[in-house]
Structures are given as structure tokens and as C-alpha cells.
Amino acid sequence: MKISRTVSITSSRSRSNRVAKGIITLLWVAAQGFMVSVPALANNERNTLSYSQLIEKLEGNSDDIERVEVDPAQQVARVWLKGQDKNKPPQEVNLFEANPELIAKLRDSGVDYEIRKTADNSALVGLMANLFIFMLLLGGLLLILRRSANAPGGPGQAMNFGKSRARFQMEAKTGVTFDDVAGIEEAKEELQEVVTFLKKPEKFTAVGARIPKGVLLIGPPGTGKTLLAKAIAGEAGVPFFSISGSEFVEMFVGVGASRVRDLFKKAKENAPCIVFIDEIDAVGRQRGAGIGGGNDEREQTLNQLLTEMDGFEGNTGVIIIAATNRPDVLDSALLRPGRFDRQVTVDPPSYKGRLQILEVHARNKKLDTEVSLEGIARRTPGFAGADLANLLNEAAILTARRRKDEIGMQEIDDAIDRITIGLSLTPLLDSKKKRLIAYHEVGHALLMTLLKNSDPLNKVTIIPRSGGVGGFAQQAFNEEMIDSGLYTKAWMMDRITMSLGGRAAEDVVFGPSEITAGASGDIKAVAELAREMVTRYGMSDLGLVAFEGAGSEVFLGRSLMPRSEYSEEVATQIDNQVREIAKHCYSEAVHLIREHRPLVDRLVDLLLDQETIEGDQFRQLVAEYTGEPVQAYTKETVPTTT
Ligand code: ADP
Ligand code: ZN
Ligand code: MG
What we know:
The protein folds into 5 domains: 4-39 and 123-159; 46-120, Signal recognition particle alu RNA binding heterodimer, srp9/1, CATH 3.30.720.210; 167-345, Rossmann fold, CATH 3.40.50.300; 351-420, Helicase, Ruva Protein, domain 3 (Orthogonal Bundle); 432-641, Methane Monooxygenase Hydroxylase, Chain G, domain 1. It starts with 11 loop residues before the first helix and ends with a strand. The protein is of the alpha/beta class. The chain contains 23 helices and 14 strands. Bound molecules: adenosine-5'-diphosphate, zinc ion and magnesium ion (MG). Magnesium ion (MG) is lined by residues 225-226, 278, 323. Belongs to the AAA ATPase family. In the central section; belongs to the AAA ATPase family. Homohexamer. Its cofactor is Zn(2+). It is a multi-pass membrane protein.
């Protein structure tokens, strides 16, 4: 169950205004903090004596006092006591105005005293503070001005202040080897060649082969592209220069291009080496595309990049590796031979890959013998390398927090939930809300168990999670089906029915006027799946027609308007079909819940009591009620949420 949160979308103009206000407030706070901190510091670090204490001392046993220094400018008297550590600062007494009384007392007591006028630097400090604040404000204003100046149509060129500070990083030794990269064997094999190019270029140049200039790594985030690039540098023992594409695209016009020049200059000086450009799609987008025409700055940068890549002759020993997860938006000029002519796809790991990645990251971790990496790998399809690394790390953190010596299965389980669903929060107190969530989740869980083609329940819980999740029913997925992607129509229908089970339970138990917004996530998922059934899989009365190709999503790189491939009339028919599927499944869900109402109530009571029911226990209870035998499921499958 997902309680939806309101997200307000503001226009970019008002956002930048807010940024401006934010900067000013920030400066103001900083300035105040600064002013307040000057006297505070003074008081804390010096030992003081009160005025009356000093007078008392002078009147009584003035033998204590070694020497007194009166400083009218700073309005203090410094008192050195007898036997005081010479290295310690004197006691300070704050004075008011001139003190004839003190001077008289000093003279009477016969203490060694001195009136000294130190240069009055308090005024100077004040002035400096003010100046500092002024500079900060001025800097902030300039920043805002420049930002707005660079907005489309603004006088961007006028504010151009040219030379870049190099923002790329250089690592002489990355320390990463191919051993640290697992599960993407094909990519590694292809890149092995690049290592040889860097190590023994003669081998290739001797037979007249041209060494490739650029390699483009294509793959979703977290699959190890950056790691792979570092491993190449590490294996070849060459320096690694890296910069992110977004760093080229600055608010200062022309800086991007000059950064490219700088980067290539440095790289050539350090050849052989690797230049790694992360997120190249940030600069390398199709030119002249996007909303409101092209972005001059980005195009200049891209042109500079192309020029540089053409400019240096092959065989200089500089190999550029770029990474992107959006190859479709890249400018075709980048992909021309002689530039990024090698393209290596880095896919999300399969089961075997996940296992190997887990093995790499388990090397430096203490795992309990009960933990099977195979089991984890089986339960984590769709996890990229970075997710798996994160998973083991989270589990290690949980282990430390629980003061255990070794990572156990419980920690792994909890870490998986934490990553896929969110942090678990403290359970709700008994309330109507908690009951409602329990009914919603039991609705899902019961249908997962009753429907013949549904994936079985792994567990159902009403312990809330961060991100507004009030509770969830988790399924154990069928790995074969996920890997092959061969979902049946029956499976899809049952999935839709199960997804609507939460809402159906709310409806049946609390009445149609008490249903909540908590089912919004379920309904969205249902709408998506039902639409795909109609428009892509030909599973409706409209027959075997594909109305939409896969991946027809809109992005701003190439075209803004999706091309509509069917008429208004067909669109209406599609909508009707989608609605028909949802309606059919919903009535089935309602029917099943009505039929099992006493069981639902019993399960809800148990869930309220236990807060979590494991799949096996749940199935046992359902079997007792229906009189049908329980099916056994292994836990080593894939969990997900509803
Ligand atoms: P990308 O650049 O593709 O987004 P990264 O290379 O930055 O992904 O991966 C982030 C982290 O995830 C790496 O530092 C590493 O710890 C882990 N990781 C990702 N892929 C792999 C892999 N194939 N083998 C081992 N660790 C990996
Ligand atoms: Zn739900
Ligand atoms: Mg990366």
C-alpha cells in the first residue's frame, strides 16, 4: 500500500527565483553567524576576572598580583597573578570607560602597573567583518546575475568569463583490475583488446592497424561502466583522466569547450592514458534537438569534442572511453568511425553474473556459513552490480548495528527489503488506519494465495516503510518466467486481480465510500499492464495488433511529440478494452474476498497481532479454511512488492 504524497511542480522560472532567494537567505545567515561568533570566541578562550574581584584584591592582599596592564583602547585590564604560569595568558578584567578609581587603587596598592595603548584593532575586525559580508553578498549577486544571464535569450555572451578551471580528475593508478569486475564477461573480453593496445601498440601498428580512438560503454546505471574503464587503466598501468559530461555543460558559455581542450592537452602530455567521459549524453545529444531549439553551449562543447577527437592522430596512445545509458540520444557524428567506433554493451547481470559480483564483494566481508550467495543471486534479478554491492554493504551495516560478528541470512533479508521497499519504520499504534492497511494487504495476500496462476506470497507485513509505504504483501516470483519473459495471459489477469485485491478488501469491508487513496500505486500498475495487454500483446478483443512499439517513451533528446499510430476511434476502443479488463478483474477480486470474508477477518486479526505473516503460515491458514492442500514453495525466489 502506498500512501501517495503530493508533489508540486513549479516552473523553472519560479524555481530559479527561489534559488536566488535561497542564496540571499544563506548569506544573511552566514553573516549573522559570523558577527555573533566574534565576541563569543573572545570570551571563551580567555580567563577573566571580574572588576569587583580585582578591586577586592587590590584593597586586600595585593601581594597576589604581580603586574597589571591597563589598556584603555580595548577597555581591559590584564592582570598577571603571582605564581601564575608564565606561558598562560593573563586574567582579563573588562573595564568601563576610563577608570580613575582603578588607577588610584593601583597606585595605592603599590602594584607594578602600566597603562598601555595597544593599537585598537577591534574597529578593524568590525570593518573586516563588514567587508567580508559585503563581498559575500556581491559574490552571491554576481552568481545570480550570471545564472539568469545564461538563460535562453539572455545576454549570455556578455557574461562569458572564459578560462576554465580544469575540472577533470587524474588518477595515476586506479588500483582496479579486471578481477574486481565480475559478471560482464563479454564486455571484459572486448576491452581486453584495449589493454593490449595501450600496453603494446607496436603489435598493431606494425601490421598497419589503426588503434581505435574511442570506446563507448552502453548500459544502465550501476552495471559497472566506470569500474570497467578504471580496470582498463589499472590493467594497462596507465593514468586515468575522468570527467563527467555534465561538467562540460556549465553555466558559463564557452567553458565547456575550453574544458575539452584542456582535458585533451593534459591527456596528450600524459600518453599513453585513458580519458573517461562519464554521462556523455549530457554533451553528446543530438544537436539542434530538444525544447526551444539547441543549446548553444552544449553544441559548442560537442563540436570541440569532435574536433579534438579528429585532431589527434591515431596511435598517440590516448584512448577515450565514454559511458552512457542513453545511446539513442547521442549525436550520430559521435558514433562515426574514427570517433567512438567501438561500442560495448554492459548488460545488467544474469543469475551467474550476479553470483560472481556477489563473490567479488563478499571477499572482504565476514559471512555466516548459513548465507548462500547462490540464494541471494537467485533472489535479486534486476539488481545491477552497484545494487548488489550496496546490498552486501547494507547487510554488513545491519550486522554491526546488531553487534553480531558475521553477516547472517536475517541481515541479508532485511537489507533486500530495505533496498527494494525502504527503511522499516516503527509500527503504527492500533488505529483505524492500521486496520485499514491490514485489510488492504491481506486482500493482496489472500488473492496471491487463492489465484491459481499467481506467484505465491512470500510474506505480508504492516510494518511501515519509508517513502510512505504503510505495509506490503510480497511475492516470491518464478525465476524461469522472469528470465524467459514468457508471461501468460492467465498470469497477467491474475496479477491484475491480485493488484486490485487491496482496494477490493477496503471496498468490501469498509464500504464504497470509505475506500482510500492508498491503492493509487496498485491502480497505476494495473492500468499499465492492462494497456500493454491490449496494445502490445494482442490479448484483447481488438485482436492481434501491435499499436505501440516497445520503448516508445518520450524523451527530450529527439522528438517531443510521440507519433500517434492509430486514430481517435481506435484510441477509444483501446481505452474501453483496458477498462473492461480492469472491471472484470476487480469484480473477481471483490467476489473472492466476499466469499472468504470470515477468513479475511481472521487473517487481519493475526496480522494486527503479529505485524508480519510469512507465506507458509498464511498458506496454512488459508488451507485450513478452504480444505485444499497447501502447496510448498521455496524461499529462494524473487520477492517484490505490491
Ligand atoms: P556505472 O558507472 O555503470 O553506473 P559503476 O561502475 O559506477 O556503475 O558501479 C558502481 C559500483 O558498483 C562499483 O564501484 C562496484 O563496487 C559495483 N559494481 C558495479 N558493477 C560491478 C561489477 N560488474 N562487478 C563488480 N562490482 C560492480
Ligand atoms: Zn496495494
Ligand atoms: Mg558511472
